[in-house]
Amino acid sequence: MDLFGVPPVNSIEAAPAAGRTVTLPWTRWALLGAAGGAAAGSLVAGATSGLASYFARQVLTPARVRPQDLAILAVTGSGAEREIILPATAETTAPGVYSVYFDGGAGHARVGEVTSYSPRERTVQRKVERVYSGDLSRAVRGWWGGSAYPDPAAAGLPSEEVRIAVEGGEAPAWLVPAEHDGRTWAIMVHGRGATRTEGLRAVPAARRLGLASLLISYRNDGEAPHAPDRRYGLGMTEWRDVEAAIGFALARGAEDVVLFGWSMGAAVSLQAADQSVYRDRIRALVLDAPVINWIDVLAYQARLNRIPETVGRFSQWLISNRAGRLLTGLAAPVDLKMMDWVSRSDHLAVPTLILHSELDDFVPYGPSAELAERNPELVTFERFSSPGHTKEWNVEPERWERVVAGWLSQVLRRPSA
Questions:
Q1: φ/ψ of residue 138, rounded to 5
Q2: Nucleotide-binding: is it a keyword of this entry (predicted)?
Q3: pTM value?
Protein backbone atom coordinates (compact mmCIF):
# COMPACT_ATOMS: atom_id res chain seq x y z
CA MET A 1 0.00 0.00 0.00
CA ASP A 2 1.38 3.42 -0.91
CA LEU A 3 0.87 7.03 0.08
CA PHE A 4 -2.38 7.36 -1.79
CA GLY A 5 -3.93 4.07 -0.71
CA VAL A 6 -3.53 2.60 -4.19
CA PRO A 7 -2.64 -1.12 -4.04
CA PRO A 8 0.08 -2.30 -6.43
CA VAL A 9 -1.70 -3.69 -9.44
CA ASN A 10 -1.14 -6.55 -11.82
CA SER A 11 -4.47 -5.83 -13.45
CA ILE A 12 -6.66 -2.98 -14.61
CA GLU A 13 -9.72 -2.46 -12.49
CA ALA A 14 -12.29 -0.11 -13.97
CA ALA A 15 -15.78 0.50 -12.65
CA PRO A 16 -18.41 0.96 -15.39
CA ALA A 17 -21.57 2.94 -14.78
CA ALA A 18 -23.43 -0.20 -13.71
CA GLY A 19 -20.91 -0.66 -10.90
CA ARG A 20 -19.36 -3.92 -12.14
CA THR A 21 -15.63 -4.43 -11.87
CA VAL A 22 -13.77 -5.41 -15.02
CA THR A 23 -10.37 -7.02 -14.53
CA LEU A 24 -7.93 -7.30 -17.41
CA PRO A 25 -4.46 -8.76 -16.63
CA TRP A 26 -1.60 -6.86 -18.29
CA THR A 27 -0.50 -10.02 -20.07
CA ARG A 28 -3.72 -10.08 -22.06
CA TRP A 29 -3.20 -6.62 -23.55
CA ALA A 30 -0.85 -7.81 -26.26
CA LEU A 31 -3.11 -10.76 -27.11
CA LEU A 32 -6.13 -8.50 -27.34
CA GLY A 33 -4.27 -6.03 -29.54
CA ALA A 34 -3.03 -8.73 -31.90
CA ALA A 35 -6.30 -10.62 -32.20
CA GLY A 36 -8.96 -8.00 -31.86
CA GLY A 37 -7.82 -5.16 -34.13
CA ALA A 38 -9.81 -1.96 -33.75
CA ALA A 39 -12.25 -3.45 -31.24
CA ALA A 40 -9.44 -4.55 -28.96
CA GLY A 41 -7.75 -1.20 -29.39
CA SER A 42 -10.93 0.51 -28.28
CA LEU A 43 -11.16 -1.81 -25.27
CA VAL A 44 -7.55 -1.13 -24.30
CA ALA A 45 -8.09 2.61 -24.65
CA GLY A 46 -11.14 2.37 -22.42
CA ALA A 47 -9.25 0.28 -19.88
CA THR A 48 -6.37 2.79 -19.92
CA SER A 49 -8.79 5.62 -19.35
CA GLY A 50 -10.46 3.67 -16.53
CA LEU A 51 -7.18 2.99 -14.75
CA ALA A 52 -6.01 6.59 -15.17
CA SER A 53 -9.31 7.81 -13.72
CA TYR A 54 -9.07 5.37 -10.83
CA PHE A 55 -5.50 6.42 -10.02
CA ALA A 56 -6.38 10.12 -10.21
CA ARG A 57 -9.37 9.67 -7.92
CA GLN A 58 -7.27 7.78 -5.37
CA VAL A 59 -4.83 10.69 -5.30
CA LEU A 60 -7.55 13.30 -4.90
CA THR A 61 -10.16 11.61 -2.72
CA PRO A 62 -9.78 11.55 1.09
CA ALA A 63 -9.88 7.97 2.35
CA ARG A 64 -12.94 7.11 4.44
CA VAL A 65 -11.22 4.18 6.13
CA ARG A 66 -7.53 3.82 6.89
CA PRO A 67 -6.18 0.39 5.78
CA GLN A 68 -5.14 -1.73 8.76
CA ASP A 69 -2.11 -3.18 7.01
CA LEU A 70 -0.02 -3.98 10.09
CA ALA A 71 -0.47 -7.36 11.78
CA ILE A 72 -0.28 -7.21 15.58
CA LEU A 73 1.16 -10.65 16.32
CA ALA A 74 1.11 -10.55 20.11
CA VAL A 75 1.19 -8.35 23.20
CA THR A 76 3.17 -9.65 26.16
CA GLY A 77 3.42 -8.61 29.81
CA SER A 78 1.27 -6.05 31.55
CA GLY A 79 1.41 -2.49 32.82
CA ALA A 80 4.80 -0.86 32.38
CA GLU A 81 6.27 -4.18 31.22
CA ARG A 82 4.10 -4.61 28.13
CA GLU A 83 5.72 -5.29 24.79
CA ILE A 84 4.29 -5.70 21.30
CA ILE A 85 5.39 -8.17 18.64
CA LEU A 86 5.08 -7.04 15.02
CA PRO A 87 6.26 -8.17 11.57
CA ALA A 88 9.80 -6.89 11.01
CA THR A 89 10.00 -4.18 8.34
CA ALA A 90 12.36 -1.29 7.71
CA GLU A 91 9.99 0.98 9.64
CA THR A 92 9.03 -1.28 12.55
CA THR A 93 12.70 -2.09 13.27
CA ALA A 94 13.87 1.53 13.09
CA PRO A 95 14.90 3.26 16.33
CA GLY A 96 12.66 5.88 17.87
CA VAL A 97 9.16 6.42 19.23
CA TYR A 98 6.08 5.69 17.11
CA SER A 99 2.39 4.89 17.36
CA VAL A 100 0.34 1.79 16.61
CA TYR A 101 -3.29 2.57 15.83
CA PHE A 102 -5.87 -0.22 15.99
CA ASP A 103 -9.63 -0.84 16.10
CA GLY A 104 -10.08 1.40 13.09
CA GLY A 105 -8.21 4.24 14.81
CA ALA A 106 -10.20 4.10 18.06
CA GLY A 107 -7.20 2.46 19.74
CA HIS A 108 -3.81 4.16 20.06
CA ALA A 109 -0.60 2.96 21.69
CA ARG A 110 2.82 4.63 21.82
CA VAL A 111 5.68 2.22 21.25
CA GLY A 112 9.35 2.78 21.94
CA GLU A 113 12.64 0.93 21.84
CA VAL A 114 13.25 -2.39 20.12
CA THR A 115 13.80 -5.07 22.75
CA SER A 116 14.37 -8.03 20.44
CA TYR A 117 14.54 -8.81 16.75
CA SER A 118 14.30 -12.20 15.06
CA PRO A 119 15.57 -12.24 11.46
CA ARG A 120 14.62 -15.90 11.18
CA GLU A 121 10.99 -15.35 12.22
CA ARG A 122 10.95 -11.86 10.68
CA THR A 123 9.47 -10.33 13.81
CA VAL A 124 10.38 -7.44 16.07
CA GLN A 125 9.48 -6.84 19.70
CA ARG A 126 9.15 -3.29 21.04
CA LYS A 127 8.35 -1.70 24.37
CA VAL A 128 4.81 -0.37 24.81
CA GLU A 129 5.29 3.01 26.47
CA ARG A 130 1.65 3.90 26.88
CA VAL A 131 -1.82 2.93 25.67
CA TYR A 132 -3.93 6.05 25.22
CA SER A 133 -7.14 4.34 24.15
CA GLY A 134 -8.52 0.90 23.30
CA ASP A 135 -7.63 -2.61 24.43
CA LEU A 136 -4.26 -3.39 22.85
CA SER A 137 -4.28 -6.96 24.19
CA ARG A 138 -7.22 -7.80 21.91
CA ALA A 139 -5.92 -6.01 18.81
CA VAL A 140 -4.95 -8.10 15.80
CA ARG A 141 -4.46 -5.49 13.07
CA GLY A 142 -3.68 -1.79 12.87
CA TRP A 143 -1.30 0.67 11.25
CA TRP A 144 2.05 2.24 12.02
CA GLY A 145 2.30 6.00 12.54
CA GLY A 146 4.90 8.64 13.21
CA SER A 147 2.74 10.89 15.41
CA ALA A 148 3.78 9.77 18.87
CA TYR A 149 1.22 11.71 20.92
CA PRO A 150 -2.56 12.14 20.61
CA ASP A 151 -2.65 15.73 21.89
CA PRO A 152 -0.45 18.43 23.44
CA ALA A 153 -1.18 17.31 27.01
CA ALA A 154 0.21 13.83 26.28
CA ALA A 155 3.41 15.51 25.07
CA GLY A 156 3.60 17.58 28.25
CA LEU A 157 2.57 20.81 26.53
CA PRO A 158 0.05 23.41 27.69
CA SER A 159 -2.55 24.25 25.07
CA GLU A 160 -5.81 25.94 24.27
CA GLU A 161 -8.39 24.53 21.86
CA VAL A 162 -9.33 27.26 19.38
CA ARG A 163 -11.44 27.44 16.24
CA ILE A 164 -10.45 29.21 13.04
CA ALA A 165 -13.04 30.56 10.60
CA VAL A 166 -12.54 28.90 7.20
CA GLU A 167 -14.63 28.31 4.11
CA GLY A 168 -17.63 26.22 5.15
CA GLY A 169 -17.38 26.71 8.89
CA GLU A 170 -14.71 26.48 11.58
CA ALA A 171 -11.53 24.41 11.76
CA PRO A 172 -10.32 23.25 15.19
CA ALA A 173 -6.72 23.93 16.18
CA TRP A 174 -4.44 23.70 19.20
CA LEU A 175 -2.70 26.83 20.36
CA VAL A 176 0.42 26.14 22.42
CA PRO A 177 1.54 29.43 24.04
CA ALA A 178 5.08 30.71 23.81
CA GLU A 179 7.35 30.42 26.83
CA HIS A 180 8.38 34.03 26.24
CA ASP A 181 8.10 36.78 23.62
CA GLY A 182 5.45 35.30 21.28
CA ARG A 183 5.75 37.87 18.50
CA THR A 184 6.38 35.09 15.98
CA TRP A 185 4.06 32.11 15.73
CA ALA A 186 4.76 28.69 14.26
CA ILE A 187 1.87 27.32 12.21
CA MET A 188 2.03 23.54 11.85
CA VAL A 189 0.54 22.13 8.62
CA HIS A 190 0.15 18.35 8.60
CA GLY A 191 0.33 16.09 5.58
CA ARG A 192 -2.19 14.26 3.45
CA GLY A 193 -4.14 11.68 5.44
CA ALA A 194 -2.61 12.88 8.72
CA THR A 195 -3.96 15.15 11.46
CA ARG A 196 -2.71 18.05 13.54
CA THR A 197 -0.97 15.57 15.88
CA GLU A 198 1.79 15.37 13.27
CA GLY A 199 3.04 18.83 14.21
CA LEU A 200 3.48 18.08 17.91
CA ARG A 201 7.04 16.87 17.28
CA ALA A 202 8.11 20.39 16.25
CA VAL A 203 6.54 22.34 19.13
CA PRO A 204 9.36 21.93 21.70
CA ALA A 205 11.95 23.37 19.30
CA ALA A 206 9.62 26.25 18.43
CA ARG A 207 8.91 27.01 22.10
CA ARG A 208 12.61 27.16 22.92
CA LEU A 209 12.92 29.95 20.38
CA GLY A 210 10.03 31.86 21.92
CA LEU A 211 7.41 30.91 19.33
CA ALA A 212 3.77 30.15 20.01
CA SER A 213 2.56 27.16 17.99
CA LEU A 214 -0.75 26.83 16.17
CA LEU A 215 -1.45 23.25 15.09
CA ILE A 216 -4.20 23.52 12.51
CA SER A 217 -6.69 21.32 10.74
CA TYR A 218 -7.67 22.01 7.15
CA ARG A 219 -10.26 20.96 4.61
CA ASN A 220 -10.85 17.23 4.11
CA ASP A 221 -8.66 16.09 7.01
CA GLY A 222 -11.59 14.74 9.04
CA GLU A 223 -11.67 17.62 11.54
CA ALA A 224 -12.07 20.77 9.45
CA PRO A 225 -15.03 21.28 7.10
CA HIS A 226 -14.93 19.40 3.81
CA ALA A 227 -14.09 21.24 0.62
CA PRO A 228 -17.22 21.75 -1.52
CA ASP A 229 -16.05 19.06 -3.99
CA ARG A 230 -14.69 16.81 -1.19
CA ARG A 231 -11.42 16.48 -3.08
CA TYR A 232 -7.83 17.32 -2.19
CA GLY A 233 -6.41 20.25 -4.09
CA LEU A 234 -2.87 18.97 -3.37
CA GLY A 235 -2.06 22.43 -1.97
CA MET A 236 -3.87 24.58 -4.54
CA THR A 237 -6.96 24.98 -2.35
CA GLU A 238 -5.78 24.05 1.14
CA TRP A 239 -3.48 27.08 1.38
CA ARG A 240 -6.53 29.27 1.97
CA ASP A 241 -7.05 27.51 5.31
CA VAL A 242 -3.43 28.28 6.19
CA GLU A 243 -4.10 31.89 5.22
CA ALA A 244 -7.04 31.88 7.63
CA ALA A 245 -4.73 30.53 10.34
CA ILE A 246 -2.22 33.31 9.69
CA GLY A 247 -5.03 35.86 9.96
CA PHE A 248 -6.07 34.27 13.27
CA ALA A 249 -2.49 34.51 14.58
CA LEU A 250 -2.16 38.16 13.58
CA ALA A 251 -5.47 38.97 15.25
CA ARG A 252 -4.18 37.33 18.45
CA GLY A 253 -1.04 39.47 18.54
CA ALA A 254 1.46 37.74 16.26
CA GLU A 255 3.64 39.99 14.11
CA ASP A 256 4.77 37.28 11.72
CA VAL A 257 4.80 33.50 11.31
CA VAL A 258 6.91 30.49 10.41
CA LEU A 259 5.15 27.73 8.48
CA PHE A 260 6.06 24.13 9.29
CA GLY A 261 4.80 21.66 6.68
CA TRP A 262 4.98 17.88 6.39
CA SER A 263 4.62 16.08 3.03
CA MET A 264 1.57 17.57 1.27
CA GLY A 265 1.44 20.10 4.10
CA ALA A 266 4.71 21.42 2.73
CA ALA A 267 3.10 21.85 -0.69
CA VAL A 268 0.26 23.70 1.03
CA SER A 269 2.75 25.92 2.87
CA LEU A 270 4.65 26.73 -0.33
CA GLN A 271 1.42 27.85 -1.98
CA ALA A 272 0.55 30.02 1.02
CA ALA A 273 3.98 31.65 0.83
CA ASP A 274 3.42 32.25 -2.88
CA GLN A 275 -0.23 33.34 -3.00
CA SER A 276 -1.48 34.49 0.40
CA VAL A 277 -2.27 38.13 1.11
CA TYR A 278 -0.15 37.56 4.23
CA ARG A 279 2.89 36.26 2.37
CA ASP A 280 4.99 39.22 3.56
CA ARG A 281 4.32 38.05 7.15
CA ILE A 282 5.80 34.60 6.51
CA ARG A 283 9.36 34.73 7.84
CA ALA A 284 10.43 31.19 7.04
CA LEU A 285 9.39 27.72 5.91
CA VAL A 286 10.43 24.48 7.64
CA LEU A 287 9.50 21.57 5.38
CA ASP A 288 9.74 17.90 6.35
CA ALA A 289 9.68 15.31 3.54
CA PRO A 290 8.04 17.90 1.30
CA VAL A 291 6.21 17.46 -1.97
CA ILE A 292 8.31 19.87 -4.03
CA ASN A 293 7.07 18.67 -7.41
CA TRP A 294 3.74 16.82 -7.70
CA ILE A 295 4.51 15.70 -11.25
CA ASP A 296 7.56 13.84 -9.97
CA VAL A 297 5.63 12.32 -7.03
CA LEU A 298 2.74 11.15 -9.21
CA ALA A 299 5.12 9.59 -11.73
CA TYR A 300 6.94 7.81 -8.89
CA GLN A 301 3.70 6.54 -7.40
CA ALA A 302 2.60 5.25 -10.81
CA ARG A 303 5.88 3.31 -11.17
CA LEU A 304 5.54 1.99 -7.62
CA ASN A 305 2.10 0.64 -8.50
CA ARG A 306 3.34 -0.81 -11.80
CA ILE A 307 1.07 1.49 -13.77
CA PRO A 308 2.23 2.06 -17.36
CA GLU A 309 3.87 5.42 -17.98
CA THR A 310 1.23 6.46 -20.51
CA VAL A 311 -1.53 5.77 -17.98
CA GLY A 312 0.32 7.76 -15.33
CA ARG A 313 0.72 10.73 -17.66
CA PHE A 314 -2.96 10.55 -18.56
CA SER A 315 -3.94 10.63 -14.89
CA GLN A 316 -1.87 13.82 -14.51
CA TRP A 317 -3.69 15.29 -17.50
CA LEU A 318 -7.05 14.43 -15.92
CA ILE A 319 -6.05 16.18 -12.70
CA SER A 320 -4.73 19.32 -14.35
CA ASN A 321 -7.32 19.93 -17.12
CA ARG A 322 -10.92 21.08 -16.99
CA ALA A 323 -11.98 18.23 -19.27
CA GLY A 324 -11.03 15.73 -16.56
CA ARG A 325 -13.36 17.10 -13.90
CA LEU A 326 -16.18 14.65 -14.61
CA LEU A 327 -13.81 11.75 -13.97
CA THR A 328 -11.88 13.20 -11.02
CA GLY A 329 -14.72 15.02 -9.25
CA LEU A 330 -12.65 18.18 -8.91
CA ALA A 331 -14.49 21.49 -8.92
CA ALA A 332 -11.52 23.03 -10.72
CA PRO A 333 -8.34 21.52 -12.21
CA VAL A 334 -5.14 21.45 -10.18
CA ASP A 335 -2.26 23.36 -11.75
CA LEU A 336 0.52 20.82 -11.29
CA LYS A 337 3.08 23.00 -13.08
CA MET A 338 2.50 25.82 -10.61
CA MET A 339 3.44 23.40 -7.82
CA ASP A 340 6.70 22.34 -9.47
CA TRP A 341 9.11 24.28 -7.28
CA VAL A 342 12.16 22.89 -9.01
CA SER A 343 11.15 24.67 -12.22
CA ARG A 344 9.90 27.66 -10.22
CA SER A 345 12.90 27.83 -7.89
CA ASP A 346 13.44 31.51 -8.66
CA HIS A 347 9.89 32.26 -7.46
CA LEU A 348 10.63 31.08 -3.93
CA ALA A 349 11.17 34.21 -1.87
CA VAL A 350 11.14 32.88 1.71
CA PRO A 351 14.08 31.32 3.62
CA THR A 352 13.41 27.59 3.58
CA LEU A 353 14.78 24.62 5.52
CA ILE A 354 14.12 21.18 4.02
CA LEU A 355 14.59 18.00 6.06
CA HIS A 356 14.20 14.89 3.92
CA SER A 357 15.34 11.28 4.07
CA GLU A 358 17.11 9.71 1.13
CA LEU A 359 15.22 6.51 2.02
CA ASP A 360 11.77 8.11 1.74
CA ASP A 361 9.69 5.53 -0.12
CA PHE A 362 6.62 7.74 -0.71
CA VAL A 363 7.96 11.16 -1.73
CA PRO A 364 11.44 10.91 -3.30
CA TYR A 365 13.97 13.37 -1.93
CA GLY A 366 15.49 14.25 -5.34
CA PRO A 367 13.40 17.40 -5.96
CA SER A 368 14.19 18.65 -2.44
CA ALA A 369 17.92 18.40 -3.11
CA GLU A 370 17.55 19.94 -6.56
CA LEU A 371 15.58 22.91 -5.26
CA ALA A 372 18.37 23.59 -2.76
CA GLU A 373 20.94 23.41 -5.57
CA ARG A 374 18.98 25.84 -7.72
CA ASN A 375 18.26 28.37 -4.96
CA PRO A 376 21.13 28.01 -2.47
CA GLU A 377 20.72 31.53 -1.10
CA LEU A 378 17.32 30.76 0.36
CA VAL A 379 17.09 26.98 0.63
CA THR A 380 18.99 24.81 3.12
CA PHE A 381 18.75 21.05 2.64
CA GLU A 382 19.39 18.61 5.49
CA ARG A 383 19.63 15.00 4.35
CA PHE A 384 18.50 12.17 6.65
CA SER A 385 18.63 8.38 6.26
CA SER A 386 15.51 7.34 8.18
CA PRO A 387 13.28 4.64 6.66
CA GLY A 388 9.74 5.59 5.70
CA HIS A 389 8.02 8.90 5.04
CA THR A 390 8.08 11.87 7.46
CA LYS A 391 9.96 9.78 10.04
CA GLU A 392 13.07 11.97 10.21
CA TRP A 393 12.22 13.21 13.70
CA ASN A 394 11.26 9.75 14.95
CA VAL A 395 14.65 8.24 14.15
CA GLU A 396 16.85 11.24 15.03
CA PRO A 397 14.81 13.60 17.24
CA GLU A 398 17.78 15.36 18.81
CA ARG A 399 19.38 16.06 15.45
CA TRP A 400 16.08 17.16 13.93
CA GLU A 401 15.38 19.62 16.73
CA ARG A 402 18.98 20.86 16.77
CA VAL A 403 18.98 21.56 13.03
CA VAL A 404 15.58 23.28 13.11
CA ALA A 405 16.37 25.39 16.18
CA GLY A 406 19.83 26.35 14.91
CA TRP A 407 18.60 27.33 11.45
CA LEU A 408 15.56 29.23 12.73
CA SER A 409 17.62 31.12 15.32
CA GLN A 410 19.76 32.48 12.49
CA VAL A 411 16.81 33.33 10.24
CA LEU A 412 14.86 34.97 13.09
CA ARG A 413 18.03 36.36 14.66
CA ARG A 414 17.27 34.84 18.02
CA PRO A 415 19.48 32.83 20.37
CA SER A 416 18.74 29.11 20.42
CA ALA A 417 18.41 27.33 23.75
A1: -100, -5
A2: no
A3: 0.89
